[in-house]
Amino acid sequence: MIKYLIAKTKKKKTIYREQHLVYEDGTHNSMGSYILLKNYYRSLQDEFYVRKYHSNKLWYKQVMFNKAFLEKKLKEKGFLQCAFCGKKDLIVYDMFDPNKSKSNMATADHFLPKDKGGDAFNEANLVVACEPCNSKKANKIYALDTLKYV
């Protein structure tokens, strides 16, 4: 039986320390199996990103505002549709969902980009877009007639 010791620590000051024994054969009271071990490492990675991005309060506030906008639009219409290409039934994913699919992921696009003077926290400046259209648009300024499905 092989044992692995996994420890989580922070460098400068030890704020917390958590240890788990992982047994290869998945016996009782262990995390067991390769998949569980992989998921555990993924959760450590997600924790790192959450801590990193939580320190950037404005970024986190923007993510929460955009998610609330998408959920509000979903309640209003019952479905989400890309304003640019018309793709329907887009899904609002959690930002750290490992199973999210970029092809059907709903995003909130700032029609007038933030770096070009667009208001980041104004719903009038947001439109629902699929991830491919939002990535394609990036920080370009489009004409209003490109919003065919609003």
Care to describe what's here?
- This protein folds into two domains: 3-54, no CATH class; 57-146, no CATH class.
- The protein has helices at residues 34-54, 57-77, 131-137; strands at residues 3-8, 18-23, 106-110, 126-130.
- The N and C termini lie far apart (60 Å).
- The strands form two sheets. A two-stranded antiparallel sheet has the order 1-2.
- The chain is an alpha+beta fold.
Could you give a quick summary of the protein structure above?
With 150 residues, the chain is of the alpha+beta class.
What is the fold's blueprint, element by element?
Layout: E1 3-8, E2 18-23, H1 34-54, H2 57-77, E3 106-110, E4 126-130, H3 131-137
Antiparallel strand pairs: 1-2, 3-4
Rg is: 21 Å
Give the percentage of residues in beta strands: 5-15%
Mean pLDDT score, rounded?
Answer: 76
Helix % is 25-40%
Count helical runs: 3
How would you describe the oligomerization state of the chains in this entry? Answer: single chain
Helix and strand sequence: EEHHEEH
In terms of structural class, how would the helical and strand content be classed?
A: alpha+beta
- How many separate domains make up the residues? 2
Shape from CA axes?
A: globular
The end-to-end span amounts to 60 Å
Notable features of this structure?
single chain, 150 residues, alpha+beta, 2 domains, two-stranded antiparallel sheet, two-stranded antiparallel ribbon, disordered N terminus
